[in-house]
Amino acid sequence: MNRVKYIGLDVHQATIVAAVLDDSGKLVMQSILETKATAILEFLHGLSGTLQVTFEEGTWSTWLHDLLLPHVAKLVVCNPRKNALLKDGSKSDKIDARKLAELLRADMLSPVYHRDSGVRQLKELARSYSALTKDTIRVMNRLKSLYRSRAIACAGRQVYAPRQRALWLERLSETGQHRRAEPLCQQLDALQALRQQARRDLLREARRHPAASQLRQVPCFGPVRVALFIAQVQTPFRFRSKRQFWTYCGLAVETHGSAEYRFVAGQLARSKRAVLVRGLNDHYNHELKNVLKGATTLACSRPGPFHDFYLALLDKGMKPAMARLTLTRKMAAVTLLLWKKGERFDAQQLKPQAA
């Protein structure tokens, strides 16, 4: 009889703790493996039955996913932010591995998408560009904070310009601050050069994907924004509906309710208790939300179909914050739909009630 075995892996840099449950939930094996391909595959090949494996998303997840996928019947890379059971009670590697196996057996894990959709290289370049952008902004903020600590006005971008750098450095009278500003300026120059090269590599790779030219039709979606959008979404067919996509982008409204039903004269009736709105969902793709928020900010200030859509919402009495959220959800839904169907952007299809 081909029985199912549920395997939870608690992955670390040097070791992996594995817990194996049978289909009745009984712990049949625990083992500590070296974090090497040969040791992991040897362990799996020594098990009989249909194997289902899970481990948490982390530094090793991409490598481990590609290694295990051909050797198991089901593989779930789960979201650690949603594994509340692991935070309850005592904690150790063996306990965590067993809890992961139990959650897998109960089908209570939230999977993280790890399929290869042909955009892995673009995704790596997008990560490089985003990291260099954040590092550049961080150095810029440090440089301006240095001038502001001496009450030196430094609004705008002139403080970063290499041609005016000597004049700005002269305004720092103390030797220590002068010597502190010089390496910051050198670091900024190096980061800006690296960021420009990463941008060129990102755009060159993005042009290889057919969706890039199609998504450029969407107003306020420039080449960099389109490249980052493709890298994060990977494929539009992983989302069944726009509401799923809104949740992934952090645009879904969370509501909390309780005691929703009651019996009145022997008949089941819905309670009139108001549902509490708790804001937008907490767990989402931060990079993708930043892309959509940037497009929304641009659309609210630049004439175009999305700007007209935004103004129409304001004319109906909607608050600006809710109008921006509605516009962002509309842009996300339209972009996903165009990518799925391969159609061209049509401003006539923008309808407020469809958002």
Describe the structure concisely for a colleague:
Helix content is 48%, strand content 15%. It has 355 residues and is an alpha/beta fold.
- pLDDT < 50 stretches: none
Give the helix proportion (percent range).
40-55%
Q: What is the CATH T-level topology of the largest domain?
A: Nucleotidyltransferase, domain 5
- Could you tell me the mean pLDDT? 92
Helix-strand pattern: EEEHEHEHHHHHHHEEEEHHH
Strand order of the largest sheet: 3-2-1-4-5
Tell me which CATH architecture of the largest domain applies here.
2-Layer Sandwich
What tags apply to this protein structure?
globular; alpha/beta; 5-stranded mixed β-sheet; 355 residues; 48% helix; two-stranded antiparallel sheet; 3 domains; Nucleotidyltransferase, domain 5
Descriptive overview:
The chain folds into three domains: 4-105, YqgF/RNase H-like domain (Nucleotidyltransferase, domain 5), CATH 3.30.420.140; 120-208; 227-254 and 285-354, no CATH class. With 355 residues, it is an alpha/beta fold. The relative contact order is 0.08. 48% of the residues lie in helices and 15% in strands. It has helices spanning 37-45, 61-68, 93-105, 120-148, 165-170, 175-206, 210-215, 223-233, 242-249, 286-301, 305-315, 320-341; strands spanning 4-11, 15-21, 27-34, 50-56, 74-78, 253-256, 261-264, 267-270, 276-280.
